[in-house]
Amino acid sequence: MSYDYDLFVIGAGSGGLAASKRAASYGAKVAIAENDLVGGTCVIRGCVPKKLMVYGSHFPSLFESAAGYGWKVGDVELDWEKFITSIDNEVKRLSRLHISFLEKAGVELITGRASLIDPHTVEVDGRKFTADKILIAVGGRPIKPDLPGMEHGITSREIFYLKEKPKHIAIIGAGYIGTEFACIMRGLGCEVTQIIRKDKILKGFDVDIRNNIQEGMINHGIRLITNTVVESVEKVSTGLKLNLSGETKETIAADVFLVATGRAPNVDGLGLENAGVELVDSSVEGPGYGTIDAIKVNEYSQTTQANIYAVGDVTERINLTPVAIGEGRAFSDSEFGNNRRIFSHDKVATAVFSTPEAATVGMTEAQAKEKFGENGVKIYRSRFRPMFYTLPDQQERTMMKLIVHAENDEVLGAHMVGDYAAEIVQGVAIAVKMGATKKDFDATVGIHPSSAEEFVTMR
After folding, report:
1. Per-residue pLDDT tens over the stretch 286-314
2. β-sheet with 168-172: strand ranges across
3. Using H for helix, E for strand and C for coil, what is the string for 182-237?
4. Which of 4, 53, 66, 430 gets the highest tally of CB atoms within 10 A of its CB?
5. Is 448 a catalytic residue?
């Protein structure tokens, strides 16, 4: 049978862009559909603008540090409008750049929202296209609990477009999005209250990462209300009123309310039922959330319909940009490049761009002990004040940790909280991925003086 395209990709985010360009490089005729700016969550309303905000939020601390080194720093003030506008301009520039990359690769960009008509037919704003293979890469979306007044809250989509800097921002959510924005907004000079349902932020991360970030946030002036939930939100003349229950029973007044309680695969309106693509139910923890649906895939990102595939956050595997890119390229290599392979989800490094920053790869201490027993692992941990903070006498701390298999000496996990954690752990992740032992770390000469050398000097 003859089709319009060899591959039709729904969604021009990280995974879809990577897969489409890789498939086109093998000679496939490829089209990609997108109903928003090209670039997806990462470029448009995620990693990129967030990291720019992170950079911006660090300057007040740097001004303070500069004084300790003898620099005279006068009055400083943030031009919020210039700050937000500059970030938005950079996002739009990157989106245009990705369009040019598609053009150079020979991928046809079709603007509009796509949905499946049958296993080989896609409709985009009334136009129908056929394809031998279809890849779904539509990512995810922020979700809110079904509680009174949630319509007054913004999500990680809208926070990049605030017209004014909030005086007081209240945040619910203990994950990396809520935690990162709490730190960003505090660094930018806002009063910040973060409300979490349990006693610690960042569920699923190593306990030392959770403890050290939380301690740092509190030291930086963020109010963390633990073991508490927001029952309802009311619009009042002075802004918003949050009614709390749990360990803390009070009302919080804020002018902006950020809901950072999770994300869900963006499966609505795709017409999956028309093409025999099955979903997997996934319960979302907490009152008012219900369940979320993700596209069911096998290790080759193949759905229950043989010619339809899915990559990235829509599959709810590991929701990270580099993972979506890796899955997309593995799909195209397998289906169009005569190189059938599986993308490995093992030992994927990740970072939390909080203040202090954190990065991690491999097993947590709890995971390692659950698998190998209390005596089956050795823990190496170091906590210190980096040299940079000695002259300004700032009480910032760095934590580094290695999880080591007691029997074969393999480094099972590496964790860090502190400046440049992501940059440092990226290199460490190579060693962990290769199965390096603690003896390999010990035999590596450190770069002195640096914080990074601590990973090869811990005893």
Report:
1. 555 567 899 999 999 999 999 999 999 99
2. 223-225, 191-195, 168-172, 256-259
3. HHHHHHCCCEEEEECCCCCCCCCCCHHHHHHHHHHHHHCCCEEECCEEEEEEEEEC
4. 53
5. yes
